[in-house]
Amino acid sequence: MFYFDHSATTPIHPKVAKKINHINKNHYANPSSIYLEGKKTKSLIEKARHQVASAIGAKSNQIFFTSGGTESNNQVLYNRINRRRKHIIVSSIEHPAILKVIKKIEVYGITSSIAPVDSKGRVNIDSIIKSIRSDTGLISIMLANNEMGTIQPIEKIIKNAQSSNIPFHTDAVQAFGKIPINVNNLGIDYLSLSAHKFYGPKGIGALFIKNNEIMKSLIIGGEQESSIRGGTENISGIIGMGLAAKLAFKKQKSIIKHLKVLEQYFIKNLQQNFSKIKLNGDRKNALPGLISISFPGYKSDILMAKLDRKNIAVSNGSACNTGNIKPSSVLEAMGMNNDINMSTLRFSFGKNNTIQEINYLLKSLKEII
């Protein structure tokens, strides 16, 4: 398969897969056990915690493992329920794990303001500032959008949040491994990660919490993860995530360079052969290798089906909406009309893609269109 849908998920790194297999065979003891094998497992988890922390400039005791980005986002939002300040500010292009949750928790007295974005998917900072109220308890803006890659100016937003003593959360699921992230330099209070977006296993993620003393457990059970999350730890998943984070951080510069080469080559050749295409998002300030393109007059579902017959995998937006052939809410928020919206494909390249593969993709698009 010619795989160009890395924003949906990435193939697991061979070293990570090998590590997970080794752990499942040799280190299966419960890390809460007091005997030697349990303590060995616990030490491996703590090593993985350190690996994830080091990759984002955090301390090990600020990293808490979850089942993925969705749970991490949910945990931050649901923790507003028992707080005095119950108003939350988000953007109109957040992941469903943010936008759907704020609606769900309205019954607990939570209120929200949704900041609009411009035609390139950049959040309106003035709108966020104007939305700040005396009871605003959280601002949550994703670091980079998952459908068209636009990187948000969170540094400016965080400065305003800090001046009003408002915690800031960012969904960094798409961004990790593609742009440098340092939670201390940025001033982030909460940050969500998911391992399967950077060549790690599925079903494991992490939440960075600057001050864990004010975070309550979303999943009730034992006192795992310093009482932040109940349930026996996903040992192999955690250790796999730690190694994946280490590898992604170590190779970040070369991967970014590679993705930019592929992206520029693809866009240049597309524009030479298809005069009517429309590039979406902020191309000067976007994640490398993630490209949203509209093909006016051609329905995205038909294009995907025809590409699939040529053994090519792409998407028309978030993989979280698989099976729902309808306009993208992200593109709608950017002001795109339905006809163009329904003619949009997302191409997201990975570290193993090659120029030869891009040529096959271009050739196939020429044959189809």
Descriptive notes:
- With 369 residues, the chain is of the alpha/beta class.
- It folds into 2 domains: 2-10 and 252-368, Aspartate Aminotransferase, domain 1 (Alpha-Beta Complex); 14-250, Type I PLP-dependent aspartate aminotransferase-like (Major domain) (Aspartate Aminotransferase, domain 2, 3-Layer(aba) Sandwich).
- Helix content is 39%, strand content 14%.
- It is built from 13 helices and 12 strands.
- It has helices at 14-26, 36-55, 69-78, 96-104, 125-131, 154-163, 183-186, 235-250, 252-273, 300-309, 329-333, 338-341, 355-368, and strands spanning 2-3, 63-66, 87-91, 111-115, 136-140, 168-171, 190-194, 205-209, 278-280, 290-294, 312-313, 344-348.
- The strands form 3 sheets. The chain has a 7-stranded mixed beta sheet with strand order 2-8-7-6-5-3-4, sandwiched between helices.
- Strand 5 (136-140), helix 6 (154-163) and strand 6 form a beta-alpha-beta unit.
- Helix 2 (36-55) packs parallel to helix 8 (235-250), helix 3 (69-78) packs parallel to helix 4 (96-104) and helix 9 packs parallel to helix 13 (355-368).
